[in-house]
Amino acid sequence: MKLQGRVALVTGGGRGIGRAIAQALAREGAKVAVAARSREQVEETAGLLGRAALGIVADVRRPDDVRRMAEQAVAGLGPIDLLVNNAGVARFAPILQATVADWQAMFDVNVLGALLCTQAVLPSMLERRRGWIINIASSSSVKGYVDQSGYCASKHALLGFAKVLALETRDAGIRVHCICPGGVDTEMAGQNPSFESRADLMRPEEIAELVVFLASLDGVMMIDNVVVRRYKATPWS
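The structure corresponding to this sequence follows.
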């Protein structure tokens, strides 16, 4: 198994991409802590992973929650080797109908949440001079989409955060990656009116396999960012 003995923390792990990532990591031998706001969802996910798993109810927007989440994960499973910043929210509206509340919600979760979670686990990684931080961004991190001004802005910010994080930690053995998927068959995709059919969407399990691949890299080769699209989406766009 590729990740035997590793300890992973996956945010937004109650459903969708986060749940698929947690399952894929566990199959490869990692001990996995999953965090989400819904107790029912996070406990269901943890129950799918086996004995070396932990479900934690936490809101990544809240510093106290994030500190407690990290402390519980370390106490239950050991020092965190891999952080997957997956928690995310989206609100879709034309620019003239965008609201401060929606933009604030997206930046709080998509950007501030990644910062807080990274700050919670990075000191231990730096001390051990080893760690993986994988950010689940979006094709909206590199492109613009109609009715997605706030979401695109927050995901561009996440990508910018990851670039600086990689620069600040590259001499300390920390590997920072981003994955930028297009449409994935999740509840969030169901809120996006631009997807007429969900049959052509990528599956959460496909993104999870990318996470496993990046988490297994431990040599000289480094991949900063992976942009993936639906097969029927326009190539090279």
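DSSP finds seven helices and seven strands in the chain.
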